[in-house]
């Protein structure tokens, strides 16, 4: 087994422009990996993240500068950020044809 240090993990070779990342939900969310992805987003090109219920507040509206979010609405700790992402047109909510606001 190879152990990786999240502080030095370079996601550029893993997440490519146009990719959709499905992240773990609830207690299975890899918080350290999610945080690294948000920090490195500018160097990864535009990609999508599918969000579900989570206990962390890792996804925030500021992250929409390089990430498009897909969701079936925020639940738990990320409900308020999800609602803001939707209002500002940065999140496509499952079951809708387009995000509210101006799509990117």
Key features of this structure:
104 residues, alpha/beta, 4-stranded parallel beta sheet, 17% helix, disordered C terminus
Shape verdict? globular
Task: Please report the number of helical segments.
Answer: 2
The largest pleated sheet is described as: 4 strands, parallel
Q: What gyration radius follows from the Cα positions, in whole Å?
A: 13 Å
Helicity range: 10-25%
Strand portion: 15-25%
Strand order of the largest sheet: 1-2-3-4
* Low-confidence runs of at least 5 consecutive residues: 97-104
User: Mean of the pLDDT scores?
Assistant: 79
Write the layout of secondary structure elements.
Layout: E1 20-22, H1 31-39, E2 47-51, E3 67-71, H2 79-87, E4 91-93
Parallel strand pairs: 1-2, 2-3, 3-4
Structure description:
With 104 residues, the chain is an alpha/beta fold. The chain has one domain. It has helices at residues 31-39, 79-87, and strands at 20-22, 47-51, 67-71, 91-93. Helix 1 (31-39) links the parallel strand 1 (20-22) and strand 2 (47-51). The protein is globular.
